[in-house]
Amino acid sequence: MTRTVRGVVVTTTAIATALALSACGTSTGGDPSADPTNFVSGGTFTMAINDDPGNLSPLTGVNLVQRALVPFGYESLAYTTEEGEMVPSMAESWEVSGTSISYTLKDGITCADGTEFTAETAANNFAYQASPDNGTFWFGSNVTEDMTASADGNVLTIESATNNPFLLESTGTVEMVCQAGLDDPDTLADTTNGTALYELTTAEAGSAYTYTKRDGYTWGPQDVTSDTEGLPDEIVARVVADEATAANLLISGELNAASVIGADRERIEAAGLDSVGTLNPIGQMLFNEREDRPTADVRVREALTLALDQDAVGELVTDGSYQPSVSLVNKTPLTCVADGPLWELPSQDVDKAAELLDEAGYEADADGDRGLTIRFLYDAGTPTHGAAAEEVQAEWNELGITTELVAEDPTGWSTDLYQTYDWDTGFIQLAPSSPVVLSLFFLGETSENGGYNFMAVENEDYNTLAEQAFQAEDSDSACDLWLEAEKELIDRVDTFPLADTVSPTWLEGVTLEMPGSIAPTTIRMLG
């Protein structure tokens, strides 16, 4: 069986500077239960986002900044804590087997437009998500074409035609849209219609997006209601592209939260601000494996990685906060990560790299030039990417490789990755929460054919293991298979997770949790 993925392609730009979508829960100031006597209800919580989110639809929106805003207007059947635990949210309980899951919805759930949210509406959500014609964000990963959904009173039942050991983790995290939004999805581009504690009330493209707290909200995760002490009345997502500006606004108190990972973090630390740490695969490299690119040859990919001093590049790309990667899954709930990887990145071996390039037909001439040019992409908005890319360029130059460095903005990423395919490798990161989501990018159709595989990877060993994992009898067996599959990606150099870091989102006058992105029901304003 081959799983094909159609529809929109997930943009992988600027993971470091999007408001920390990759997460691992190291919190130094985000515990909403800490000293509640300091909580002050009301007011405005203002956060920085590094770019305009564009389309706000939770059904098809793919920009990472946009995905960080989805939880402010929409919620899911279950809530994922910072520790990766699934707890009740819209659903009060669930019963799960290998091929089905039944959710019992809480009473009294209403939509932003005032209508009742029912189990039938939830079933309609999954029917919409399961249709390949709709090309939704979750189709092919959390929701598959072989899923069906039905409602009986306040009970939603989702059935899978094949065994699925991660039915709760997948279906429980899909954001629910109210019926009017499903009936006319185009309306969701610049409005919200969900059941969340907040709803969008003002949208100023390129400037700010304001969400206002709803009255009568009683069904929140961890017993949060509209009357929970410390909740702000408004949430403002303010577009602040420059980190130095974001740092200034934090220190002055004009911002309550911002992700700052470059040199300006020293000023913020000196000011004594707390932060919530989130795992960031900032040094991950992907490769264009289309037949007209030099990186289609595994020998070239292997040579490029063997030539690198991982510690030197890692220290630069993380601004001195380098830590080795332990998984390609790096977003909460970190499914199948606990047991550690089966793979290990190879040590630097410049001589072996040279031999591989010779074998691939790139022999050095009398001047040491191999006639090999690599187009290396990095994010212009990520402060540490530029210096690390120059180090890569210098190290590859020693091997006779010409490296063309390209600092990408959002338009450039879209053009090179999904239109012209004019790239070879670079600091390009993925932020999956499970190996199932990861498989979207390596299994199935390429982006030219409507899939998520924008690298054009064809790894048959990975594909075979992934298909077995999809139908494993239980989660332990599935995780074992997924770990083997991930090793195949590393061994074939389809990706090279050179360095991870813990990126801080700094907090001023507020405490909160970030199980992926900021969870609005955990925001508590401080006095």
UniProtKB/TrEMBL annotation:
Domain of life assignment: Bacteria
Keywords per UniProt: Signal
GO molecular function (one): peptide transmembrane transporter activity
Biological processes, Gene Ontology terms: peptide transport
Signal peptide stretch: 1-29
GO CC term, one of those recorded: periplasmic space
Keyword ATP-binding: no
Cited InterPro entries: Peptide/Ni-bd, SBP_5, SBP_5_dom
PANTHER family in the cross-refs: MONOACYL PHOSPHATIDYLINOSITOL TETRAMANNOSIDE-BINDING PROTEIN LPQW-RELATED (PTHR30290:SF65), PERIPLASMIC BINDING COMPONENT OF ABC TRANSPORTER (PTHR30290)
Name of the molecule in the record: ABC transporter substrate-binding protein
